[in-house]
Amino acid sequence: MKNTDKKTNNIIEITDFSASELDVYARLTENQLLNRAEPEKGMFIAESPKVIERALNAGYIPVSCLVEKRQIENGVEEVLEVLKRCNQVPVYTAEFEVLTRLTGFALTRGMLCAMYRRPLPSVKEICENTGRIAILEEVVNPTNVGAIFRSAAALNMDAVILTAGCSNPLYRRAIRVSMGTVFQIPWTILDKRTAWPQEGMEILKAAGFRTAAFALRNDSVTIDDPQLAGEEKLAVLLGTEGDGLDASTMAECDYTVKIPMSHGVDSLNVAAASAVAFWELGKRRT
C-alpha cells in the first residue's frame, strides 16, 4: 500500500491484494461480517456515496472506504463529501478494473464503505410510539428484504420487524436495493429465544397492535376494508417467498387480507405485495 496524496494521509493506493485490511472487501462472507460470536465487532458494507451518506447520517461508524481512483481524481462531489466525513479512517483506492477483480463485482458509483453494526432495539422498543409496523416472516432473499424496506420507508410504515430466518437487512445487496432506507426506518430481528408466532404475537398485542396477515385465502377481508384501515395500531405480516405465511401465524392474526388479482395471476412477489399493502394501509396517515 502507498499513500497517493501528501495532503490527504488517509488515501492509500492498493498495491497488495493479500493485505489483511482488505479482507472485509475481498474475502469475508456476509456471515463472517455479521460476526455472531462477537456481535459488537460485526460490520457491513455500504455501497455508493448516497447510501454511505445515509448510514453516516444515521450514526453508523465507518471502518474504512474503498474508492475508484478516478472518482477522487475527477473530484466527484458526492464522493468527496463522503470522504470529508470519513477523514479519520483509511481510504483504499485503485483503478476500476483492479477494484472489480478485488471484490468480485463492479462497484456501484465507485465506492464502498465498511461500517460497524449497532446493537438492535428490542421488539418492545420498536413497538413504542408506532402505529404501522411491517412484520417479515422468513423472507430469505436479500433483494426482497431491501425492496420491502424501501417501500416501508416511503409508504408510511413506522418500523420493520423480521423473524430470525430472514435475510439480514445489512447484507450488502439488501442495503443497495433499499437505497439506504434500512438506515432511515427503525427495525429489529426477533430474538431466537422468543418463540414465533406465539410469544412474538403476545408482545405485539400487549403493545396494542392488531395483526393483519396477507395471504391468498378466501376467508379474508379486502385490502380496502374500512375497519382494517381504521385500526390505530396495525402490524402487517408478510411471509416467505413461495409458501407465504405459516398457517400457525395466520391463525394468530386478527385479520387475513387478500389483494385482489386479475388476468389469472395467482399472486404477487412479496416485495410487490408489500408496496400495495403499505400504500393502502398507510395512505390515510399522510
Automatic annotation (TrEMBL):
Q: Where is the tRNA/rRNA methyltransferase SpoU type domain?
A: 133-278
Write down the Gene3D superfamilies for this protein, in alphabetical order: 3.30.1330.30, 3.40.1280.10
Its GO biological process terms? methylation
Keywords noted in UniProt: Methyltransferase, Transferase
InterPro entries according to UniProt: Alpha/beta_knot_MTases, Ribosomal_eL30-like_sf, rRNA_Methyltransferase, SpoU_MeTrfase, tRNA_m1G_MTases_N
One example GO MF annotation: methyltransferase activity
Q: According to its UniProt record, what is one Pfam family this protein matches?
A: SpoU_methylase
| Name of the protein | RNA methyltransferase
